[in-house]
Specification:
Number of helices: 0
Shape: globular
Order of helices and strands: EEEEEEEE
Distance between the termini: 8 Å
Structural class: mainly beta
Oligomer: single chain
Helix content: under 10%
Radius of gyration: 13 Å
Strand order of the largest sheet: 1-2-3-4-5-6-7-8
Largest sheet: 8 strands, antiparallel, barrel
């Protein structure tokens, strides 16, 4: 299943955006992982809301550097019991605009 999404940095060092496919479309927040104690733990926890408005953690994201030296986010989410992975690449933005990543899978 193909997924897409977009994450834009907020003033509180989080990212806000969405993740979607043909079968789901959810707003998400990527917040620094307060439980990170090892390098292999995600840098960000990915949070969404249930249909009843409750916060639920649906995945994690790791900050990475490509061989070419470009920053990206490696993203893993759980959708209906199925793990899905993708990479979010940094978009070119005008000076003064917040940092934005596009999710590709």
């Amino acid at each position: 299943m193909s997924i897409t999404g977009q994450f834009t940095r907020t003033d509180d060092d989080c990212y806000a955006g969405f993740i979607g496919s043909l079968t789901f479309d959810v707003d998400v927040t990527l917040a620094p992982n307060e439980y990170k104690s090892q390098d292999k733990h995600p840098d960000f926890a990915i949070w969404s809301k249930t249909p009843r408005g409750r916060s639920i953690r649906i995945g994690g994201a790791w900050e990475q550097i490509s061989k070419a030296g470009n920053r990206y986010l490696s993203v893993s989410i759980d959708v209906n019991g199925q793990a899905m992975r993708g990479n979010a690449v940094k978009r070119d933005t005008a000076e003064g605009e917040p940092e934005t990543f596009e999710l590709l899978s």
